[in-house]
Amino acid sequence: MEGKIPSQNLIRQINPEAPKVDPGLYRALTVDALGVLAALGVGYVYQGFLGGSFGIAILLGAVGLYGTFTALQAFLNKGVSHRLLVLLLEVVALLALFYKTDIRLLGAGAVVLFALLAWGDVNGRRTLDNGLRIHFFKVAFPVLKKFVTAMAIVLVLLYVPQWDQNRLFISENSFQVFYDWASGLVNKIYPTVNVTSSFGNLVESVARLQLQDDATFKALPPASQGAALKQVADELTKALGEWMGITISATDLTSGVMYKFITGKIAGLRTDLGNWFLFAWGVILFFVVRGFGLPFYLVISVFVFIVYQILLASGFIHITGESRTHEAISY
Predict the structure, then answer these.
(1) Which of 25, 68, 76, 240 has its CA 20 to 30 A from that of 135?
(2) DSSP letter at 321?
(3) Element of type H or E holding 327
(4) Measuring CA to CA, which residue among 31, 103, 40 is closest to residue 68?
(5) Axis crossing angle, helix 80-95 with helix 56-76, rounded to the nearest 10
(6) What is the per-residue pLDDT across 246-291, written as a single tens digit (0 to 9) for each?
(7) How far apart are CA 274 and CA 262, in angstroms?
(8) What is the maximum alpha-carbon separation in the chain?
């Protein structure tokens, strides 16, 4: 009909906009997923470490990688409930492979790990929220300090049941690494004492050190000096074997002899003191591990800072200014 305005559905002409997901959410979830995988990796590597499959360097690398994601999550995760959920998943992932461990130790480890990680995260977030500028190390240090303490406690708790299998905290191969490092210090003080080869060479070098200023020894011909050295070395080997309570062969590696001596003494204390020894040994190990944790977390802090700068430079995260003149991390 002319002059009649055709009917129109004005509502249908407006296309509803599809809800958009903030791309930063996927980035945060990616870091969270990598953190959970890193926690699972620590559990896997530590289980192998206790069994002698992995060395101390691989374990430190796995713990360092997990610590890196833990520190980064303190910057990226803004929701408390979300962060606590991720921490819970990380705790489960780290302890999952130790399901055969005594449930009491496993539960204690889970509570300690979750509580300390959450404590460190809260301290880091508080520093981040209350500052006008983002001071990286002021945020990362509290997180990593609690992280190192948590890992020291949990690793010791998971180690204690290994006494049922007559295992030390470190395998003989890992002990070799520490022994070689200590031997380097000894060689600087006593360059003529050979502490890195066989036990026979060690006692012979010690015997030579004892006899080098002896006038009677110097007066002997070379063949007689060699015989005298061998006699003194044999006597030293026998005396040390009796004192250590182990059988020593001249061809045994010095590090192996020391490892056998230490394990024998510790096993003897375990028999004499029973479960009290496990408690005392666990406390000692905690302070030893925690002592190494100071330089370790400083190294991790530097590594995390490098990763943080790379993420900023790549645009994965960026710093924005808020209306209250407060810097914040965006993604």
Answers:
(1) 25
(2) E
(3) strand 327-330
(4) 31
(5) 170
(6) 777 777 777 778 888 877 777 777 777 777 777 777 787 788 788 8
(7) 18
(8) 138
Encoding tokens for residue 290?
A: 């925690």
| Alpha-carbon distances of 160 from 185, 239, 293, rounded to whole Å | 31, 34, 19
Among 44, 244, 21, CA closest to 158: 44
Query: Between 230 and 147, whose confidence is greater?
Result: 147
166-171's contacts with Cβ under 8 Å and 24+ in sequence apart are 166/263, 166/267, 167/50, 168/259, 168/262, 168/263, 168/266, 169/285, 170/56, 171/49, 171/52, 171/55
* Sequence-ordered list of residues with C-beta below 8 angstroms from that of 255, at least 6 positions apart, any chain: 172, 175, 176, 179, 180, 196
| Amino acid symbol at 167 | R
Mean of the per-residue pLDDT values for the chain? Answer: 79
Q: What share of the chain in percent tops pLDDT 70?
A: 82
> What are the residues facing 328 on neighbouring strands?
320
For residue 44, give the nearest of 72, 63, 69, 68 by alpha carbon: 63
d(CA 200, CA 230): 9
- pTM to 2 decimal places: 0.68
Separation between Cα atoms, residue 229 and residue 174, nearest integer Å? 33
DSSP string of 265-306?
HHHHHHHHHTHHHHHHHHHHHHHHHHHHHHHHHHHHHHHHHH
- Whether the CB-CB separation of 329 and 319 falls below 8 Å is answered with yes
Q: Cα–Cα distance between 64 and 87 in angstroms, integer?
A: 17
| Residue 98 DSSP code | G
Residue indicated by tokens 């666990």:
282
Residue from 152, 151, 137 nearest 301 by CA: 137
Cβ pair 250, 198 in contact under 8 A:
yes
Neighbour-count burial of 218, counting CB atoms closer than 10 A to its CB (0-12 exposed, 13-18 middle, 19+ buried): exposed
